[in-house]
Specification:
Elements: E1 9-12, E2 16-18, E3 26-30, E4 36-40, H1 43-46, E5 51-57, E6 64-67, E7 73-74, E8 83-85, E9 91-96, E10 101-104
Parallel strand pairs: 1-3, 2-4, 3-5, 4-6, 7-10
Antiparallel strand pairs: 5-9, 6-8, 9-10
């Protein structure tokens, strides 16, 4: 996988599925048109150490909703629970493979 030391910035105006091509990237989501859904690829597919960053901008109340793959956990929530990210706050998405969970901080 690539390095997080020189992140690539990718601007999006629609939801997407975060996959291996997004490793090390900062995904900028334009929320002017509304909230967006972002699906997370299965942990087993991406592997331990996968990281990317997510940033929502251009609106004060629209959010980015993260949707885990079937049965997976984001932070310490229940399996399959989604997580809404506040706009204008940069978040890192990281796989903690030892616990088979997404860590968002």
């Amino acid at each position: 996988m690539g390095s997080l030391l020189q992140p690539r910035f990718v601007t999006k105006s629609a939801g997407l599925t975060i996959d291996a091509t997004h490793f090390g990237q900062t995904l900028d989501f334009d929320l002017a048109a509304g909230s967006l859904m972002v699906n997370l690829t299965a942990i087993v597919t991406l592997g331990h150490g996968f990281k990317c960053r997510v940033w929502g901008y251009n609106h004060a109340s629209n959010v980015i909703t993260l949707v885990p793959a079937g049965g997976e956990i984001i932070n310490e929530q229940l399996a399959d629970a989604t997580l809404a990210l506040s706009p204008q706050v940069l978040k890192t998405l990281e796989i903690n493979d030892t616990r088979s969970r997404w860590r968002i901080y």
